[in-house]
Design goal:
13% strand, Beta Polymerase, domain 2, elongated, four-stranded antiparallel sheet, six-stranded parallel sheet, 18 helices, alpha/beta, 3 domains, Rossmann fold
Length: 416
């Protein structure tokens, strides 16, 4: 078994790289089937969020995994290798535990990542790529995360990305209550951000989404309006604050669309937050003089300012994780002995069947059962003893000493 975690995150790569290595939900199943179908990995699970893309796998060839990630996204490996981390065995286990516990997040202690990891495991399970090792890893990961959060309360009073978006908006506008807010998308992230903005009672709130029914469902919760995503070009100029988070592989808010909106707004400022990876808003939009555009990386700078109070809890969380990693690696080490134990049992079974077959034939000939049983027991002993005895006789010096020590330990032999 060779456990590895390969990935990029907000520590190692800018958003321009992370978005090129993302696995949107609509291609995730195909990616899992591809990486295992090509025998690059025996097991695989992919975690893809706005802050990280990680492949957890059981593979004998980690370098082939690096090549596969680059190739799947049609990128030259040399372009992505500088941003990738490849963590083997114990380091991979520790990393998974830290990620699920919120210790590796842009927002220290945030809870959303745990749900995203559970989704990654469920999707791998559905794709048939979650085997013994990864199943055990994720099961233990979720238990450790729960223990960390319960014992340390590290997630208490977190300064979330959602709250940071409101904080930034209030630096631009004196009062959110005087502004019109537009949300593009209707997923979990938009729901969280909408909750924070709705608490400021903006003068207008709208949700646009490809599925208008989902947009209407979310908008109704906050007393807002809903519209089809295709209506966005005609709606954009009516809003002062725009927050977007969709799963689109390509930008849905282009430079031309924003330029037209600014002209209709008579160049009143437009505050935009792009929480999507890959990005929903073309990067060139940020260069417009009347636009204040922020990405997830920009919001990270805001949330880091509010994390000091939780750093004291990190040490306690790391201690819990260290103990759990040791326990998991002990299980991994034991699993590595399984093929040998299985081969040993199969070897013994063949000996048993051979001697038992001879005994059955002797009994069928009418031989004395007591004598047959005696020969059976001697035959088994001789077969079991032959190979260890031969190995000891052939060995010499330090090798013989090691074999003697191993036999004494394996069979708990009395020492003179």
């Amino acid at each position: 078994m060779h456990l590895f975690a390969l990935g990029v995150n907000h520590h190692t790569a800018p958003i321009a790289i992370r978005e090129r290595l993302a696995f949107p939900a609509d291609i995730l199943g195909r990616a899992l089937a591809d990486v295992t179908g090509r025998k690059v990995a025996r097991e695989a699970a992919i975690l893809s969020t706005c802050n990280r893309t990680e492949v957890y796998c059981n593979t004998p060839s980690p370098e082939a995994l690096v090549e596969w990630v680059a190739g799947f996204h049609n990128l030259p490996p040399r372009e992505v290798k500088p941003y990738l981390y490849l963590l083997p065995d114990e380091q991979a286990v520790k990393h998974a535990f830290r990620v699920a516990s919120g210790l590796d997040s842009m927002v220290l202690g945030e809870t959303q990542i745990l749900g995203q990891m559970k989704q990654a495991a469920e999707r791998a399970q559905a794709a048939g790529t979650l085997g013994l090792v990864l199943n055990k890893l994720f099961h233990r990961t979720f238990s450790v995360a729960k223990e960390v959060r319960t014992a340390t309360a590290i997630g208490a009073n977190t300064v979330s990305m959602s709250a940071a978006a409101v904080t930034l908006a209030e630096r631009i506008f004196p009062s959110i209550a005087d502004q019109a807010v537009l949300f593009i998308g209707a997923g979990e992230m938009i729901e969280l951000v909408a909750t924070h903005f709705a608490a400021r009672a903006p003068r207008r709130l709208m949700v646009v989404n490809r599925t208008v029914e989902r947009a209407r469902e979310l908008a109704n919760r906050f007393g807002g309006e809903a519209a089809q995503l295709s209506n966005l070009p005609e709606l954009l100029h009516d809003f002062d604050i725009v927050v977007t988070s969709t799963a689109s592989p390509l930008p849905i808010v282009g430079l031309g669309m924003v330029e037209r909106a600014l002209k209709l707004r008579r160049h009143r400022p437009l505050f935009m937050v792009d929480l999507a990876v890959p990005r929903d808003i073309e990067a060139e939009v940020g260069a417009l003089s009347d636009v204040f555009l922020y990405t997830v990386d920009d919001l990270g700078e805001v949330v880091r300012a509010g994390q000091d109070a939780r750093h004291a809890k990190v040490e306690q969380a790391e201690a819990i994780i260290a103990a759990s990693v040791h326990e998991f690696m002990h299980w991994m080490d034991n699993r590595r002995a399984v093929p040998t134990l299985r081969a040993l049992r199969d070897h013994a079974e063949r000996m048993r069947r051979h001697e038992l077959d001879k005994a059955h034939k002797a009994l069928a000939r009418g031989e004395d059962p007591t004598a047959v049983l005696e020969r059976l027991s001697h035959g088994l002993i001789n077969k079991f003893m032959h190979e260890p005895s031969h190995a000891l006789n052939q060995a010499g010096g330090a090798e013989r000493d090691r074999l003697v020590e191993a036999l004494n330990r394996l069979y708990n032999l009395p020492q003179e």
